[in-house]
Amino acid sequence: MSAKKMRLKKGDLVKVVSGSHKGSEGKILAVYPETHRVIVENVNVIKKAQRPTQDNPRGGFVEREAAIHASNVQILDPQTNQPSRIAYKIEGSSKIRVSAKSGAQLDN
Question: Which CATH class is domain 1-76?
């Protein structure tokens, strides 16, 4: 499986558009282009068993976000706050990411 370049980036605000977490919104915490997955803040939260360590002698369960497939999320348009696809616009010698719906610039 080849690693396809992903249009989503860490820090993007996205909305989950399909799957069991449909309708949830959050910021992308991590992007994994090799597996085409992303970790979204407060989406797909799992309980993970933690072994006792010197820092945490009791161990127990830790809640953390698990990765979801990148095709299940769409970026939020900064102007309309609606899910949108990502387009690219060439300005001079630079290529910038824009919302496909409104043309609003996505990169800060």
Answer: mainly beta
